[in-house]
Amino acid sequence: MPLIAILAGDGIGPEVTAEARRVLDRLDLDLSFDEALVGGAAYKAAGHPLPPETLALARRADAVLFGAVGDPDCDRLERHLRPEQAILGLRKELGLFANLRPAKLFAGLEDASSLRPEIARTIDMVIVRELTGDVYFGAKGIRTTAEGLREGHDEMRYDEAEIARIARVGFETARTRKSKLLSVDKANVLETSQLWRDVVIEVSADYPDVALSHMYVDNAAMQLVRDPGQFDVVVTGNLFGDILSDQASMCAGSIGMLPSAALDGQGHGLYEPIHGSAPDIAGQGKANPCAAILSAAMMLRHSLDKADAADRIEAAVAAAILGGARTPDLGGTLTTRAMGDAVIASLG
Ligand code: NAI
Ligand code: MG
């Protein structure tokens, strides 16, 4: 029986994860669950945001269902003890190099998008973001120049193996959709991007059925708000992916609707809503659990080979939204629990 590690975390993390768990329980999928503390909750109980038991459970489990970390009580701690280090540590320790971020507008939520409804309606894309390399993990620091000036530096780097493996995830993802892959880089200026483009083209030889195209990141940012419907699957590096995926998610409506997956390429993954712990609404039953519920659906599809159950959950969320179920972020009055109930009722 597959084991799911539930790492609910801080703030609204436990509230939304509880609803995802209720949806999974309702489907009778023969899953077992084990929970562990992470983030500020773990720091307060055990003195570290990612205790060894938590990491061990995440490794042992077939998949991790993650809530969110972040706790205002921990803001003054040294960086390595902050709750947010837990999610960075999990990605690194578990080798979760591929971040899938679908962004689509659910029918009925046109008014929630920052784009005009007729444009917002066309968004239905997946960003495949590299997650364990790039400028985030290169040499960095603040040093003093010969002239006595402080100088910050962060090295951007990718080797060809890192590029090839994320490119393959991009091509494979494209095959499950429209067989179109757009690679986003800044090859007109950056050598790292030139290598990126060269390697993506080399890998494309193995995917003759997928139409590959390229775009510079600045143009991609513009096109995303001009005509999001032109995008289907986008593969890009860590920094560009960070920025473009946040931009895409806002085009698609509330942050409370969007799930994500972080994958190791061998079926193991961590699934989480894209939002954080939302301390401003924590404990008030106001959080939208749909992003967490949709993350559970991604887990069933990508780690547990249960695509039918994933489809059922996604259809139930769409039906609940179309039927008018709305938490406050969507302009409604439902509590977190009531939104979970609406999704469960739509499971049929
Ligand atoms: P946030 O995503 O927690 O909240 C941003 C805004 O969106 C807030 O107004 C919040 O109320 C609202 N919001 C978020 N999720 C919602 C939901 N499900 N339903 C309704 N409204 C929702 O981002 P913020 O405020 O920048 O960060 C809060 C904490 O979360 C920080 O400690 C941050 O470091 C952490 N964080 C953790 C992440 C993770 O665990 N992967 C990701 C992003 C932030
Ligand atoms: Mg971000």
Mind explaining what this structure looks like?
NAD(+) binds at residues 276-288. Homodimer. GO terms for molecular function: 3-isopropylmalate dehydrogenase activity; magnesium ion binding; NAD binding. By secondary structure, the chain is an alpha/beta fold. It has two domains: 1-96 and 264-348, Isopropylmalate Dehydrogenase; 98-258, Isopropylmalate Dehydrogenase. The protein has twelve helices and twelve strands. The chain has helices at residues 13-26, 40-46, 52-60, 85-93, 117-120, 160-175, 191-204, 217-226, 238-251, 290-302, 307-322, 336-347; strands at 3-9, 32-35, 63-68, 98-104, 124-130, 140-144, 150-154, 180-185, 211-216, 233-236, 259-263, 269-273. It has a ten-stranded mixed beta sheet with strand order 2-1-3-12-11-4-5-10-8-9, with helices on both faces. Strand 6 and strand 7 form a beta hairpin. Helix 8 packs parallel to helix 9 and helix 11 (307-322) crosses helix 12 (336-347). Bound molecules: 1,4-dihydronicotinamide adenine dinucleotide (NAI) and magnesium ion (MG). 1,4-dihydronicotinamide adenine dinucleotide binds next to loops.
Tell me the total number of β-strands: 12
Strand order, main sheet: write it out. Answer: 2-1-3-12-11-4-5-10-8-9
Q: Order of helices and strands, N to C?
A: EHEHHEHEHEEEHEHEHEHEEHHH
Question: How many domains, in number, for the residues?
Answer: 2
User: Taking Cα atoms only, what radius of gyration do you get, to the nearest Å?
Assistant: 20 Å
CATH architecture designation of the largest domain: 3-Layer(aba) Sandwich
How far is it from the N-terminal to the C-terminal residue, by CA?
25 Å
| Biggest sheet statistics | 10 strands, mixed
CATH fold-level assignment of the largest domain: Isopropylmalate Dehydrogenase
- Number of continuous helical runs: 12
Bound molecules: 1,4-dihydronicotinamide adenine dinucleotide, magnesium ion
Shape: globular
The amount of helix comes to: 25-40%
Low-confidence stretches: none
Oligomer: single chain
Main location: cytoplasm
Site (Important for catalysis): 136, 186
Binding site for Mg(2+): 218, 242, 246
GO molecular function, one term: 3-isopropylmalate dehydrogenase activity
